[in-house]
Specification:
Adenylosuccinate Synthetase, Chain A, domain 1, four-stranded mixed sheet, 3 domains, ten-stranded mixed sheet, alpha/beta, 20 strands, Adenylosuccinate Synthetase, Chain A, domain 3, globular, Adenylosuccinate Synthetase, subunit A, domain 2
């Protein structure tokens, strides 16, 4: 397996965690390159569910894991996650995990601003998780962020906190009319965790470069999905970072020529958490059935996911933006009991058929979906491990996805466990 990027093709929650867990066995390093603890990857190992939010899910396979410079990290959440994984007998020592010294730190005031902003918007809120990710990226863009390397000079760290909080406290008190933060309290909080964090901090870009030169194989793990990308998603109902595969290089400090394969993860239907347009959303009994059968609740937030039919306008957009070399279809088994399954092939708006994903929210909200209907297979496929053994209607459905996306399917997941996976075309060699 060459250096491989795993990216979501829809609005996140596609099942990337399982695929990363599966492919990690064939990689030396696993790298997270964007986002924050607003992501959640769920793995089922020997019947036990393990959820990670910041630490790459390759840690389950005991691979060396890296949090890249493109990630924003809440250090308190990180330490909680380390303790959680340690309690599950998973080695998360500094030998196994490194955090980029250039990664930005989510500070307590970022979380306060995030929550206050959403509360003020009321019905117009974006649907952020309130974890401070957006405000942290804001400070990164305006060059007033605090990075992990700043902890190495704690006197400088203290000066930065005091200076930044003069502005943040004014903003919190006079604009949001909410509580302020004492700089000394923040400094004291970091003083208590600093020594535990520092052994994890390193120049991840240099380590990965040396690894590549020593024939180490890297798996790049993305969070969220293509249509939550800050550049290419359903703006403003997007995340605060660039989700697409191109950011795997930038967010980890690895040159783009070192990436060999890009696998797009596609749920066999479509889901979305939070606000924002969702053209194929179902509001009927079928949508409820998919939601319940698929246990569609956010791994990070616990929020109920909105469910709908597979949207090929969305998938074709993701294929183009990410230069996908292969697809991994997840949760195909969730559709087992349906009599009919629909695929959206385009949108109709003002008498025109739209094949390419539009940027305008109004069009996405007002368009009519163009569907084709396929017969269901009405059979439990969760125990099938060979592609040839799938029901013909299931194979037809997958073939149509390949045809409409012009990307080969390489992996099909028919259940949450590692064993419930069909390798259609190997990417391991």
């Amino acid at each position: 397996m060459g250096n491989t990027v795993i990216v979501g093709t829809q609005w996140g929650d596609e099942g990337k965690g399982k695929i990363v867990d599966l492919l990690s066995e064939h990689a030396d390093y696993v790298v997270r390159f964007q986002g924050g603890n607003n992501a959640g990857h769920t793995m089922v190992v020997k019947g036990k569910e393990i959820i990670s939010h910041l630490i790459p899910s390759g840690i389950i396979q005991q691979k060396k894991c890296f949090i890249g410079n493109g990630v924003v990290v809440d250090p308190f959440v990180l330490l909680e996650e380390i303790d959680y994984l340690l309690s599950n007998n998973i080695d998360v020592s500094p030998d196994m995990l490194k955090i980029s010294n250039r990664a930005h730190i989510i500070m307590p005031y970022h979380r306060l601003i995030d929550s206050a902003r959403e509360a003020q918007k009321g019905d117009q809120k974006i649907g952020t998780t309130g974890r401070g990710i957006g405000p942290c990226y804001e400070d990164k863009a305006t060059r007033r962020g605090i990075r992990f390397c700043d902890l190495l000079d704690f006197d400088l760290f203290k000066e930065k906190v005091k200076t930044i909080l003069e502005e943040k406290n004014f903003y919190l008190e006079h604009y949001f009319k909410t509580e302020t933060i004492d700089p000394e309290t923040v400094i004291d909080q970091f003083q208590k965790i600093k020594e535990r964090l520092l052994p994890y901090v390193a120049d991840v870009s240099v380590i990965l470069f040396d690894g590549i030169n020593n024939n180490k194989t890297i798996l790049f793990e993305g969070a969220q999905g293509t249509h939550l990308d800050i550049e290419h998603g359903t703006y403003p109902f997007v995340t605060s970072s660039s989700v697409v595969a191109g950011n795997a290089a930038n967010g980890s400090g690895v040159g783009p020529a070192n990436i060999n394969e890009i696998i797009g993860i596609v749920k066999a239907y479509t889901t979305r958490v939070g606000a924002g347009p969702f053209p194929t959303e179902l509001f009927d009994d079928i949508g409820d059935k998919i939601q319940k059968t698929g246990s569609e609740f956010g791994a990070t937030t616990g929020r109920k996911r909105r469910c709908g039919w597979l949207d090929m306008v969305v998938l074709r957009n993701a294929a183009r933006l990410n230069s996908l070399t292969g697809l991994a279809i997840t949760k195909l088994d969730v559709l087992d009991d349906l009599d009919e399954i629909k695929i959206c092939t385009g949108y109709e708006y003002n008498g025109t058929i739209i094949k390419d994903f539009p940027p305008e929210i109004k069009i996405l909200q007002e368009c009519t979906q163009v569907y084709e209907t396929h017969p269901g297979w009405k059979q439990d496929i969760s125990g099938i491990t060979s592609f040839n053994d799938l029901p013909q209607n299931a194979k037809n459905y997958l073939a149509r996805i390949e045809e409409l996306s012009n990307v080969k399917i390489k992996i099909v997941s028919v259940g949450p466990g590692r064993e419930a996976t069909i390798i259609k075309e190997s990417i391991f060699n």
